[in-house]
Design brief:
The chain has 160 residues and is mostly helical. The chain has two domains: 70 residues; 77 residues, no CATH class. Helices cover 79% and strands 0% of the residues. It contains eight helices and no strands. Helix 6 packs across helix 8. The longest helix has 25 residues.
């Protein structure tokens, strides 16, 4: 039984997540969303470079450190509850950036909605494709994320 639980956690599983787990994850995610929304202008300034951001009065080192700590905390809480569901955090913002550009006023809420939609559709696909068997969600998201990540990687290489 413990081996099956470990395997499901390794591939990502929403089936064992209950409402009490969602409450804890929701609080941490909501705190991160509020923080990111308050600092969306700082992120836009960072797109022009750290020197420009410093000249606009942004403490870049503190902003980066706080962002890293909050993102690591949020990721660890979610991964501890649902397991490793790969590529959603990488794919969703890039899909949104392809559609709306780099303005974080649109990228932050767009990434939230896109990531939730990708996770929902992946879970639905994992449960329906071969009906009595539930596929691992991480495998489904990897089929989407891997090629998109490679596309973005090679696209950046051609630009330089």
């Amino acid at each position: 039984m413990q081996l099956a639980t470990l395997v499901y956690w390794t591939f990502g599983n929403l089936g064992s997540t209950g409402w009490d787990d969602l409450g804890g994850m929701g609080i941490v995610v909501a705190a991160l969303i509020v923080y990111c929304c308050f600092h969306r202008w700082d992120y836009n300034a960072l797109l022009s470079g750290s020197e420009t951001a410093v000249s606009l009065g942004i403490n870049v080192r503190r902003l980066i450190l706080v962002n890293m700590v909050l993102c690591c905390l949020t990721t660890s809480v979610i991964v501890a509850n649902v397991g490793l569901i790969s590529f959603i955090g990488l794919v969703a913002p890039h899909i949104v950036r392809m559609v709306v550009g780099n303005n974080h006023i649109y990228v932050i809420p767009g990434s939230i909605l896109t990531g939730a939609t990708i996770l929902l559709l992946s879970d639905l696909f994992a449960r329906v494709v071969i009906s009595p068997v539930i596929l691992p969600i991480g495998a489904i998201t990897s089929f989407l994320g891997g090629p998109l990540f490679l596309y973005l990687l090679f696209k950046e290489g051609k630009r330089e």
